[in-house]
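re: ur question from yesterday

yeah so i grabbed the chain u mentioned. its 73 aa long if i counted rite. heres the sequnce exactly as i have it in my notes:
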Amino acid sequence: MENRILLVLSVLLAIIGSALADQVTLKNGDRLSGTIAKSDGKTLVLKTDYAGDVTGQFDAIQGITSTGERRSV
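ran it thru and got these C-alpha cells back, copy pasting raw so excuse formatting
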C-alpha cells in the first residue's frame, strides 16, 4: 500500500513538473521541454533535465510556450 502511494505521488510530481516547463516546438514537429535560459534573437538556450543546455536557432523554431514569467525571447 505504501509503495502504491509513493508511485502515485511520483507520477503526480512528474506531471506537475512537465506542466510548468517551457516548451519549444520546432518546424520539423519536434518538441523540447525545459526552462528558457537565454535568448539573443538568433539562438535560444533551453535548460533540460535530460540533455543539459540545448541551443537552437530561431530559424528552426515554430513556436514557444512559456508558463513562467513573461520573458523577452
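noticed a couple things. The CA atoms of residues 30 and 45 lie 16 Å apart. also The chain has one domain: 2-65.
anyway ttyl
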